[in-house]
Amino acid sequence: DTEVTQTPKHLVMGMTNKKSLKCEQHMGHRAMYWYKQKAKKPPELMFVYSYEKLSINESVPSRFSPECPNSSLLNLHLHALQPEDSALYLCASSQLESGPRTGELFFGEGSRLTVL
Amino acid sequence: QQPVQSPQAVILREGEDAVINCSSSKALYSVHWYRQKHGEAPVFLMILLKGGEQKGHDKISASFNEKKQQSSLYLTASQLSYSGTYFCGTERYNNDMRFGAGTRLTVKP
Questions:
Q1: Which of B18, B69, B89, B109 is most enclosed, with most CB atoms within 10 A?
Q2: pLDDT of residue B91
Q3: Which of A60, A88, A107 to mutate to test the interface with B (most CBs of B within 10 A)?
Q4: pLDDT bracket for residue B95 (50, 70, 90)
Q5: R_g over Cα of chain A
Q6: Nearest CA to A89 among A103, A105, A73, A78?
Q7: Is the pLDDT of residue B66 over 70?
Q8: pLDDT category, B60, cuts 50, 70, 90?
Q9: B81 in helix, strand or coil?
Q10: Mean pLDDT of A35-42
């Protein structure tokens, strides 16, 4: 199984709502990532978890709250978002090795978020 | 901290060649190349870890000049299926993968 599964595929929410994006992988990868991608722009790194611990937070506003409950799951909790947060949110995973990295990122298909 | 990619866009006829460049002002741990088609997730093409390393994948290959912190992706005898946006991704520390702005490649019959 070489899949990263993201749910939901589409999400529309108001600025006062609370929602969550979910990501799951069963490849035994111990690094998991959240990226934000706007139209015609590259994926922008938000958070990285290594061995279920937050290792990188790219100064993302606190209205985005990541969570890694176990080695297979990654959540992104959303609260009080702004219309400019509308984007495709991509989850990815990769192996963590002590030696030279093979490091391929496996991406999910993304959750397309619209904030009204 | 994002790498700089060039050109922004390329239009080719089938069978033509293209080169996409990626550079960084900082020392790099690795360089990745990904292709993203419209409405799809990015797909891994290759990773380069060592200076001077070259890798190939069918008619797509890449090189990494560690001294200059530059990588190039070479697409030879392009096919229609090569169309998409190509991103280089670079790591300075473990797992901090950041992507360049992308190169939109269009291959026409």
A1: B89
A2: 83
A3: A107
A4: confident
A5: 14
A6: A78
A7: yes
A8: very high
A9: helix
A10: 96
The pLDDT of residue A96 is 77
Q: Residue A111: closest CA among chain B residues belongs to which residue?
A: B41
Is A56–B34 a contact, with Cβ atoms under 8 angstroms apart? no
pLDDT of residue B36: 97
| Residue among B43, B57, B95, B99 with most chain A CBs within 10 A, to mutate | B95
Provide the H-helix boundaries in B19-73: none
CA distances from B81 to B13, B59, B84 (A): 12, 12, 8
Cα(B79)–Cα(B82) distance, rounded to whole angstroms? Answer: 5
Task: List strand residue ranges (DSSP E) for A1-116, in order.
Answer: 4-7, 10-13, 18-25, 31-37, 44-50, 53-57, 64-70, 73-79, 87-94, 106-107, 111-115
Of A63, A58, A64, A55, the residue nearest A46 (C-alpha): A58
The chain-wide mean pLDDT, for chain A, equals: 92
- What type of residue sits at position A58? E
